[in-house]
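Justification of resources, computational component.

The compute hours requested in this renewal are based largely on the per-chain cost of generating structure records like the one below. Each record pairs the submitted sequence with a full structure-token output. That output is archived, and it is also reused by downstream analysis tasks.
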Amino acid sequence: MKLKYLFLAASVLLAACSKNDDKPLYKDASAPIEDRVNDLVSRMTVNEKVGQLLCPLGWPMYTKSESGEVNISETFVNRMKEMPIGGFWGVLRADPWTQKTLVTGLNPKLAAEVMNKLQKYAVEETRLGIPILFAEEAPHGHMAIGATVFPTALNMASTFDEELIERAGAAIGEEVRAQGGHVGYGPVLDIAREPRWSRMEETYGEDPVLTGILGTAMVKGMQGTEDGSAADGKHVYSTLKHFAAYGVPEGGLNGEQTLIGQRELFSELLPQFQRAVNAGVASIMTSYNSIDGVPCTSNKYLLTDVLRDQWGFQGAIYSDLEAIEGIATTHRCAEDWAEAGALALKAGVDIDLQGNAFGPNLEKKLEEGKITMADLDRAVKAVLRLKFKMGLFENPYVDPENAAKVVRSKEHKELAREVARKGVVLLKNDGLLPLSKDVKKVAVIGPNADMMYNQLGDYTAPQDRAQLTTVLDGVKNIVGEAKVTYVKGCAIRDTQGTNIPAAVAAAKSSDVTILVVGGSSARDFETTYLSTGAAIVNENAISDMECGEGYDRTDLHLMGDQEKLMEALLNAGVKLVVVYIEGRPLNMNMPAERANALLTAWYPGEQGGQAIADVLFGDYNPAGRTPVGIPRNVGQLPVHYSKRISHDYVDSPAAPLYSFGYGLSYTTFGYSNLQLLPGDGKDVYQTVKCTVKNEGKVDGEEVVQLYIKDVISSVETPHMLLKGFKRIALKAGESKEVTFTLGFDELSLYNMEMKKVVEPGKFKVMVGAASTDIRLDGEFEVK
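The structure output for this chain reads:
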């Protein structure tokens, strides 16, 4: 009998083992995620582990026939056989660099089909069936054919509208996810104080509080779920870019070294990243630059000691494209790519974007003892956690029919228009605006009046013209085509086709002239690119592009014949409204002094033309605010509002032409009843209240801004710092009370020992409509 029970027990145990072999723990959806991660890692070879850390270029991984049939490519199959890859970047990316056009690229339905086929191979044809984590560019919309193109981040920042940006993030995330993507690269949280730099358009401006609040709103919108898992099938993981201090390169040259002290780094260039980390962001990307001689992609202090250990970041860290190789080539801090890969891994990088440094080298470096299995496992687990949290092992596929419905839906197009309208900044108005819809004749002039790509910004896919509205389209839609005369006048840079006399003639024969000038980040198929995707300036091919990654400048004047065109129109004595569509704050001295009205819309996206027209003709009352200072000339740089200015230059004021937070409305607002109320001394040190009233005759919105100054401190602090803002809508004659709270984060500084503390003493509170338009002020004291 005893032998019988022993036999039965052995049989049960054998059956259980057999069952477990049939379904490994990592495939059990009911098991804790960390147990699943550990089980899977224990089953992986070194080759399979290294493969999970690679994220090579994705667009060569599919083929498309002339009949439109899509399939996986031989390149993809060979890569997966050689080393199963953990992720791919930009499978759906379409632009001149990838050579994917409206014909050779993929519409949303085909995109979803391709992603499913790639995923099916990974799940069914590789030994462990680990799904692929697809990463896509998504800084202002998915960089894929057919996706909604939202305004770039400078326009979004000008909205000062946290809730709106979260909605935009949700729409972007939904479009990426519907097509099979899992990670959206964005938002860009670099603090940008160098307008010569080619990537300022991608940022939320010069201030860490504005950038932190709006950038975190974008993260929340993209990731959706409270736990940040994005597991509902409608959201993606957000990737913060670029860690760290990338937006203040020496000389304004993209990727150059950053020379900055630790106190300024932690006080003004990192807080926005920490805010997003606290909100649960899933991934972060390193930057190309070095800080004080240490490449950011091999900076263990920042990537591990600060980001993971101090801030508690639990996600995955991507390198920027070929940034690991740059440790050896650009910075000369490693002998070769192999050593660079080892340095980056040990510093805390988990995923090699491109894969040239990790892929062929980590196995060898493990054998040599330059890295440990613990280093490798740490990175592999970071990648696998993202896949398990999103539920990719259970639900790796998407519905192509749903992609066709979701991407660029009517709701998303309307949202893009709303963002664009709220991001238009009215800088000057002598009373000409808003224009009457009964105007008899309107001249629309300028290189950006009817060039759709010039209003979209960098990281934009090829577009269907029917889906976009230019300024010319918008004006025609409001007043009727018969009333509008259009003359381009000149290009952004090229001077060969300039026709200023025709523009002046059109202006003189019209009741009002709208001149649309500025810049462009529009890539074309004649431009050549570095392996990182940055454009190479070609003096022999004069496109409109004067901004966008790789197009750094030494001067901020309008290029080509644009200023000649503007001066001719001003000299003609016509009623002139000047609109800037731009990726950086360009020189505005002439229109600020002489034009009747002046606006900037930055790059306002696919619905930007209609949004601008809505503002010009009063269908929308502008309330956008400048997220960066607009300099008078490059000799002033930097001009961020928190910079101490002790005196003027011999030949110019030291203050910018327009400072941070500035913007006009078609109505006026009054501020009153400032109240400074003590808090609990723990979470809230002080509560600030005031009343804002719309004193005009039309409804409008006001952006109420709160600044503080630490009156006396142990280390020098800025004379004013933004600590809060609220965009409120007020009907004509309506009043609202606005409330802010000041806690530890708002009042603290890094002292002489680099400890973050709130020092006892007086603080000045300033409330107003801009950093240069303070309406109320008072003081309180921290004991």
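Residues 1-20 have pLDDT under 50 and may be disordered. Residues 2-22 form the longest helix (21 residues).
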